[in-house]
Write a structure and sequence with these properties.
- The protein is an alpha+beta fold.
- It has two domains: about 130 residues, Glutaredoxin (3-Layer(aba) Sandwich); about 50 residues, 2-Layer Sandwich (Antioxidant, Horf6, Chain A, domain 2), CATH 3.30.1020.10.
- The protein is built from seven helices and eleven strands.
- A five-stranded mixed β-sheet has the order 5-4-3-6-7.
- Helix 2 crosses helix 4.
- The longest helix has 16 residues.
- Bound molecules: benzoic acid.
- The site of benzoic acid has 9 residues, from helix 2.
Length: about 210
Amino acid sequence: MAIRLGDVAPDFTAETTQGTINFHEWLGDSWGVLFSHPKDYTPVCTTELGMAAKLKPEFDKRNVKIIGLSVDPVDSHLDWEKDIEETQGCAVNFPMIADADRKVSDLYDMIHPNANDTFTVRSVFVIGPDKKVKLTLTYPASTGRNFAELLRVIDSLQLVSNYAVATPVNWENGDDVIVGMGVSDEEAKTKFPAGFTTLKPYLRITPQPNKV
Ligand code: BEZ
């Protein structure tokens, strides 16, 4: 059964490059990003993991823990990490789940047999502090993900979890936002003291509330 937005992220206990973890316990009160890689010692994954490691301070700033997964054992992950550091210029600084028995991959439906019956696809699950799934992405093995986009989406998710707003197309942190559809004009006047512009009754724009 596919995991849908709003579902509780399935819990599990797994071996990782940083020891055994219980997923929910490891998440604690943080946000989380769980992302899968098709296989160790593969080129696209090598670049993705290097980028994720470089961006870890940005995830930390947002109170987001990141964790990777592939269907190889811990010793393979650890050996591959040496190549990642050598070629990408950054050591992997977050845990990688060793899912040789595919327990977690199956739990999160990360193996799509019509794409490949042994490797995982490139899945991403963003999980909120309430342990609920806030975003899912699925990329094929041949296309590397954009981790800057992941940070952009997390900025939006965190903003809308605190304010009655939505973020428009191509929004970046600091840009104007959309007043939530459930907010009346009267309420908007108190919720958004910086004011708002009504382009249409359903399309009202206000400065990003935590930036004014
Ligand atoms: C890669 O990471 O480059 C890759 C992994 C599995 C299949 C194809 C490419």
